[in-house]
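ugh ok so i messed up the first submission bc i forgot one of the chains. this is the corrected input, ALL of the components this time, i swear. 1151 residues overall. if the numbers dont match what u have on ur side tell me asap before i send this to the collaborators (the ones from the other lab, u know who)
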Amino acid sequence: MVRTMAHRASAGAHVVRATRPAHRAARRVLVAAPLLALAAFQEPAPAAADVGPPPRIADTSAMDASLVALLAERIAAVEAAPGDAEKRRDLGLAYEANSMWRLAADAYGQAIALAPDANEWRFRRGVARYKLGDLGDALVDLRAAAESFKNTPVVQARLGDALRVMGELEEAEAAWRRAIEAEAKQPQQIRYPQSRVGLAQVLLDLDEPAEARDLTEEALAIDPTYRHAHFIRGRALRDLGELEEAQVALALGNDSFGGFPPDPHQLRLGDSMRGYSRRMMMIENLVESNQFAEAKERLDAMLAERPDDFMVQNLAARVALRRGDRDAARTLLEASLEAAPDEPNTLVELCLLELDEANTILAQLGPLQAQAAQAQTAGSAVPAQVAEQMTILRTRGVPIADRAVQHGGRAAELAPFVGRNRFWLGIAQRTRAGFETDQQAAMQQVQGALQTLVSAGKLGCTEPSYHQQLTQLHFQMGQVRKALDHAVQHLARDPRDPNALQTTIQLQLQNGRQEAIKPYVARLADVATELKNAPLLQFVVQGFLTNQQFDEAEAVLPVFEEAVANDPNGAAFLTSVRTFIAAERAKLGGDQR
Amino acid sequence: MLLLTALALTPFPTSQTDAEAADRPWFEDVAAAAGVDFVNVSDRSEAHRFPEIMGGGVALFDYDGDGDLDLYLVQGGFLGEIAEGATQPTNRLYRNDTEEGELRFVDVTEAAGVGHGGYGMGAACADFDRDGDVDLYVTNVGPNVLYRNNGDGTFADVSEKLGVADPRWATSAAFFDADGKGGLDLYVVNNLAWSDTVETPCFNYYQEPDYCSPNNYNAPSVDVLYTYGRLGYTDRTALGKVETAFGNGLGVVVADYDQDGDQDVYVANDATANVLWQNGGRAVFENVAMTGGCAVNGQGRPEAGMGVQFADLDNDEDLDLFITHLRKETNTFYRNKNGLFDDKSNMVGTNAASLKLTGFGMGIHDFDHDGVLDLYVANGAVQAWKEDERYDPADAYAEPNHVFKGKDGRRGVKFQLRDGDSGSVGTSRGAAFGDLDGDGDVDVVLHDLDASVKVLRNVANEPGAAAARWVGFRLVEGSKKALVQGAVVSIAAPGTEGRRVRLASPAYSYLSSNDHRVHFGLGGADTARDVKVTWPNGDVQSFGDLPAGQYHELVRKR
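and heres the new structure output, hopefully the right one now
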């Protein structure tokens, strides 16, 4: 209800703003500029010779061969048909795809000169000029393109973005609104989160956070994985004074890319990307999105070209490991180490490979250790088969874990101020402790691992699981306050991590801070509700009951009921909770609702 | 009488001098004539070792206490092996011997004992021991150096003795009172954990070998906080919670941005989120940059933060942030609104210019004394421009610098690029700002990589009556009249009801230490009205009206 009213108030503000004289003046400019620009296009197309030779790079000797070959091919095509605007455009695409904005703009300029009605290339040139920082010229092109492609969301959105950067906010707002309107006119009636977030950004600049927040929430409803919407939502919430919620949203959207609706030329641009670092970047992206088969294919091609390149080998090893092929990973890393023996990153990759192997063995060892402990507790001997299995696993695991420690240690020695290297050494030390038979020796090794990890933090450690690991280790050492401190730091980075939320709640309770769990339980309730995860929901209900938050607990119960539909234990829990709440309410003297 | 007062308060008088000033360049390089013969050696090589492209600090401070600004230049040198027959160049100190407005510097490095030969980065200056003379801290790729001023024209290296010789690669540094005890504590910004072993091949847009982005190393570094006590400096990084956030640090500024009576620290990080250390009051800090709105730009992206300054650009009497960045990023204006910042770069008019070039050193000052802040940005690429795109055929990294004139608008200052007044073309890095020749306007010293240092004398203001439209303040305390930093000076804005505020701190720009004095252009006014100082602990002291055209010493009352 409140949201709706805020939205209405905000819509009212638009009406007021639309009547501002400055706004009307801007409108006149907006209308006039494309007309002028279009008038210029009505000139007859010049002869091919007039547009000049294709733009080219004078010295390509130090450039990547694959990129040079592509450009040579496109330039040759232009030279073979100098009057063909399409060939000039293809050259522009090659330059643009490889971030050579000036050359791209020039090539598009020639295409435009040869085919003045093809405003598609005016759009591309506008984008290139924008990237180049020639914002004034970019706006001329983008305005003209927007006039021609009224129903193409990306064209309106690009214009909106350029206008926002230039501080032409009212006009930017209008362009983004046109982008959203254009979506409705598409045959599929697709709704793009990017357009909503783009508009929200302009509205924030116009000091209208309420509508900005609503738009980002709409964007998240369309695509919950569009992280940039979280960030802009966080900014809106902050402007609205909702600092706690803003903090979570900002963390969720931190370091996210703002995007645009799909660009019709994207595929062709993608096909024209060349060069070592771009190829590596594309492979990294494939790995990030778990597309290992394609990543491997591309890496194989690169390895054929550059068999001694340790960076390619390391990336290929990482992909092999993610695909479960440890042998291939090891072969690649050993070759890599041979190519660059003192490369800390290779040593870390080796350490990771060995940790993967060691942890697999530890996973097998764990249940056996539990069995042995159970037997010892019961006063009986550890079954011989279990003891033998444990010995076999330890014999296999110890040298692997030792090698992990050795490689991690060497990396830390070679680059002593890099926190990441020391982090992996600490993790290796901790893993090694897992194979120790003597409890005291194991605890000493865990203590050593903890010290290494703390020293990694003093240097600055970028590993996402750093605080999580420290939480576990401090907890293992009985240092609850420190564990809690790291759990909270982990949540600042990953505010919706359900495990971290659970750990934090438990640690707060252990620290006697019952009241402090409230915001974490509330956040976990959101996460658990989204996931419809029964154990998490049960934990949440218990968390709410701890602080007698009966209403909140009851709000979660229907989701829990749905999640445990066929589970008698779940049903029993549900009944006991309802009974408990009723009894507590009775004790408190009536229904508090 | 009434008429005269009104004239004096008119903010922007039109005169012959103003019209002329609008056309001619504001700065002229007088380095050679003034005797500054320093040439930077960066050791740029085909190995493309990252620190080679990042150095070039400058410090302006009155080391001999004669009332003018002396010049210290931080040299790079050879990062790898020294070429046969070559010697490692060192940092240099130039004493200011200007007479009757003629700038003149004399190299006194050897006599002063400050010719450090490490691969230098930046410098910070302050009277840390409160003995009435200004000391010098130099950051390096390798152990940093603290030179204590002996008060007789010489310095003593006390880095080891006082425990501030951290061996990691440091960039900018700032002295300030972190714990409110009155001593000057020290914040040292570290870049990444660089060594030859972490160097890695990288490529530019043209897929040619070039310098990396710092994130290619994945080795950002924790900064260091030292607090000063009777026994010297103590590393308070852990206790002060300064290890809880980190990045590839380059710039640092210190101020009480939230006006709660203690000094906060803002660190501009390169390609990692910036850090805003909110001081809990006793040198225990919390990074509030993300919620505070100045960790990343308005789009959520960490930018390549280089130079940084606190200044009130929206004229609302608090301190905003302005940060220089990489090409294809804006130089970002974070507006301070009740202690929360917001990226409002599109308000100040610098976006179009800054997207094209890479900004490093910067200074926001009223260069032309019209009462409105202007902006100087020192630019220089970190990846090579291709031959046909270069601004200097001989230097693939050179870029023109930017001089912006400020105009007061509805929402604060809006900068306008002064076409054709670049001041200089080079691979510019450090830029320090101060009144070198004592004529009341702000000059610039510019440190370009592999080039001669430029001493840019401000010629925007012709000598004479109109030039005296300024006022300057030197803030001191105690019997030794030690310089105070972290205070805010404000005056009644000429012609309006608001106030203009300036931060008294030499730590801003990039790798540089600037004039300790505070400078205001006064438009046409011949008096700075209702001068007030908010001292670092929040105490406010009034000094009434003070005449224009001179520096005033403002003494802190305890």
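quick check: Chain A touches chain B through 65 residues (CB under 8 Å). that seems consistent at least. Residues 1-42 of chain A have pLDDT under 50 and may be disordered.
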